[in-house]
Amino acid sequence: MEYPTKLKIRPKDGATEILVLVSHPMETGLRVDAKTKEKVPAHFIQTMTIQLNGKDVAVADLGVAISKDPLIGVSVANAKKGDKVNVSWSDNQGNKGGADEAV
Amino acid sequence: MTLINRRTFLQSTLAGSVLAVAASAGLLTPTRVLAAAWPAGAFEAKTIDDALKSLYGTTTTVDSKAITITAPPQAENSAVVPITVSTTLPNVESIAILVAGNPNPLVANATLFGAAGFFSARMKMGKTSDVKVIVKAGGKLHSASQQIKVTVGGCGG
After folding, report:
1. Which residues of B touch A41 (CB under 8 A)?
2. CA distances to A56, A60, A63, A70, B138 from A66, in Å
3. How close A4 comes to chain B (CA, Å)?
4. A78-87, B31-40, B139-148: lowest mean pLDDT where?
5. Are B110 and A61 in contact (CB under 8 A)?
6. Which of A39, B54, B127, B140 could form a disulfide with B41 if both were Cys (CB 3.0 to 4.6 A apart)?
7. B110 → closest Cβ in A58, A65, A78
8. Please, how many CA atoms are within 13 Å of residue A91, restricted to the half-sphere of its CB?
9. The pLDDT value given to residue B7
10. Choosing among B31, B112, B119, B148, which should be mutated to test the A contact, i.e. which has the most A CBs within 10 A?
11. Is the model's pTM score more than 0.95?
12. Rounded Cα gap, residues A42 and B101, in angstroms
């Protein structure tokens, strides 16, 4: 199954804000399926790495309490136009995803 | 079903014990351990103190006015509560968000390498409770908290 990842990069308060939106169910493992009466297994993004020009700027460890279709934002102060932003993530079921975008 | 549970259980316990061994041997600094693998112990902790101990090895924090939490005082939808943390503290190493009323308080922990002191996300909340933000800057833990009211139940309620 594919989990599309979208990036939005915009200037904010003199810095550059990087917003990451992933279409991901983010199941907590506590929810019970209404039809089968069985618990839906936990399925959530664990680690998201945001890179600028190939260097890590932020590594976010996420838990089950992050909402469905997570929207994660970080800010970098010294990004220039044309800099490459790369985002990659992995979830607890071994799925991976990511996206690239220029500032 | 049981197989999957057994596998995830084994994986998490194995990962946890390897981290503990590496940390106790002094081979890795805590931040490096965090960056290397998902801190399962911290995310499974049942209280804020336990989560902090697992993340940073201490529960001592200093209240700081330099941390700004932007979140609604009353959540319209408890499954999607937007929160933005910004700080003017220099040398921010990591930002952690914890919700006292959730079964597992730790929501997210972001390790920053030169990024500005800013982190935003959307989170789920089970009930009305305090949201605590821990910012590690210059080797010290700074904290701030805000109460968010939840009128309806957490997931799908």
Report:
1. 4
2. 22, 12, 6, 6, 27
3. 18
4. B31-40
5. yes
6. B54
7. A58
8. 24
9. 62
10. B112
11. no
12. 20
What separation in angstroms does the CA of A3 have from each of A69, B10, B110?
Answer: 9, 26, 22
Q: Tokens 């069985």, residue?
A: A38
B20 reaches A (C-beta below 8 A): no
Is the ipTM of this structure higher than 0.90? no
- Number of Cβ within 10 Å of residue B130's Cβ equals 14
Q: Do B118 and A75 touch (CB under 8 A)?
A: yes
Stretch (H or E) spanning B17: helix B2-24
Helix (H, G, I), strand (E, B) or coil at A34: coil
Distances from the Cα of A41 to the Cαs of A25, A32, A92, B111, in angstroms?
11, 9, 10, 27
Rounded CA gap, A92 and A19, in Å? 22
Distance CA B54, CA B32 (A): 14
CA distance A67 to chain B (A): 5
| Residue B76 reports pLDDT greater than 70 | yes
Beta-strand relationship, B140-150 and B62-63: parallel
User: How is residue A17 written in tokens?
Assistant: 């804000």
CB pair distance less than 8 Å for B111 and A58: yes
User: What does the block give as tokens for B112?
Assistant: 């920053």
